[in-house]
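[job 0417] fold request received: Origin recognition complex subunit 2
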Amino acid sequence: MANRSRKRQAAARVDNDAEYEDDGEDDRCISMGNRQAKDYFSSRKFRKKSKEDKKISGVQLLNVAEVRKELTSWDDSHKEGVPAFILEQYEAKHFDTWRNQLFAGFNLLFTGFGSKVQLLQAFGRLLGADENVLHVHGYLPSVSMRYIVAFLFEKLFRKKLPSGRSLEEQCIDLGRLLAQQTKGVCIIVHSIDGIALRSGDTQKAWSLLAQCPQLYLVASVDHVNAASLWDESETKRFSWLEHTVNTLAPYTNEVLVTGWSGAMGRDDKHAVSGIQYILESLTPSDLATLRHLGSEQLKGQSLSYKQWETHCCKHLLATPAAMRNTRKVLEEHGLILLSRNDAVIRIPFGDHVIQQIILDEAALDEPQS
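[job 0417] inference complete; emitting structure tokens
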């Protein structure tokens, strides 16, 4: 009886195996209880890799002319910036909401993929019907927060920037004057995370202006770590309402600024980081006069060429004859910029460049006691 039972069980197992039989020649089945599993490794077919597999000679690369042609074609297809239908959608669905949020006491921060310059310029035209609008292109390396504050003092209140006061104190004074006005001002900052605006003092100044009830701040950010610019107190003063806008527009305006903008419109071969090499080529007298101008500019002082020359001669930094040569040299290098009739002379760079590159060099050259 026991032998018959074992024979019946063996026959049942054979029938069961037949149901899972595979026609593949290389497939093997193993019994796992009542289930079947393919022997994965035995079913794989391996072949020896040839030397040709390790070569990239078979990959055809584009030559220089072909690459240039493709890039030109891509640029031509994106000349219009923000697609018209996307711009129309934002104008119809969001502009009124954004304006109401501004007037409710919030400031607007725009993030997202694509350049936001064209979109915010269109939004600024809507706001211009009710408020004064100032556009600040923060991606330019020559942007100066002190210059912006001085410009607001002059244009809105016909006053000169108070001298001898820090940037923080000047922003507080400006906020007090704005609070007394019936008509506000809207500042649209394209790339508030731009390289010229990333310093802690500059961002603190922006936050002090942002908390003024008569100043409406609209800003865009492009850097992935832009939020790290602000600490908790600054974020509270900004009162941001964040909006994600994917314009899909190329960053044409932002990436065209490859020079250091000292040439003011000319083709410039030098980058911002190359200023230090130009400084090394200057004579000690030229360097001293440039640093004096930079120190006065950081204090908020606006000097004419005559005032600059008088002070440099008084402190024996140069003679009147040498000043004429100094002016020529610094202008040729794009280190200074003079207005018409020499009414104002300034260094056409942001505060961070003056502090970290031009004035920091002075600390290195000073004799140690």
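[job 0417] notes: The chain is about 45% helix and 10% strand. The CA atoms of residues 139 and 154 lie 24 Å apart.
[job 0417] exit 0
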